[in-house]
Amino acid sequence: MNTPDTAIRLELEQFIQTTEFSCLGARAALKRNALTHGHYRCLGDEESARATYRDLLDYALALPRTLSSQSFRTFVATFDEPGIVDELAHEELIWQHLQFMHDIDSRTYGLERGATSDPTQPNFGFHAGGHAFFIVGMHPGSSRASRRFVKPAIAFNSLAQFMLLGEKFYSMQGAIRRREVTNNGSVNPSFVDYEYEQPARHFSGRYTEDDWKCPYVPRHESPAGGIAGELMHPRSDAR
């Protein structure tokens, strides 16, 4: 594991516990000492992406032994650079970083059953070590208070973990969205408009245009006979 920066780790913990931060899953992970943190030089940098991937792979390979309906676990990567950039620049950098990581992973590992690496699909997940993740990008230039951290950051959340939560997922989702309304004035419009239709739209945190194209090239072939949507929650009407 890349040696975490102690000061950044402390800032991350403090941010997660603020009223502005909405994700209750991250709070639960922190409370249970199940938040894994790595700190790296620069978001979008190829060398930093390789280091992020090495640590995420170790995390992903150990993850199946730790997941349960009671678990809340997350891996958060933070970065020294860049400083404050606008949401378009951050979106470009986060997808560039993920592409570098995916290019390495896809040489050795495949897809989690029921998921795809095609960002146009509703069962898309970012993969590492055969495990699919939902990404939450954060940065100091975010328009959403819940994603406005002092450093660029990427949280990697297991899609299988969401499924294991069952109905608790929807209770937690409802509570998170109520916090969003209180702290940000509204639910994140990206989730309201697109919900589970195209999760890649949610990764950077920017509200994307109708004609948005994900700047990410999948290297995996879709598995024959895969179960589309197995790692999706079926209740797309849930708000």
TrEMBL record:
Q: Which Pfam families match?
A: YqcI_YcgG
> Would you say which domain of life the source belongs to?
Bacteria
Q: Which InterPro entries match?
A: Uncharacterised_YqcI/YcgG
> What PANTHER family does this protein's entry cite?
YCGG FAMILY PROTEIN (PTHR40045), YQCI_YCGG FAMILY PROTEIN (PTHR40045:SF1)
Give the protein's recorded name.
YqcI/YcgG family protein
Q: What is the lineage of its organism?
A: Bacteria, Bacillati, Actinomycetota, Actinomycetes, Kitasatosporales
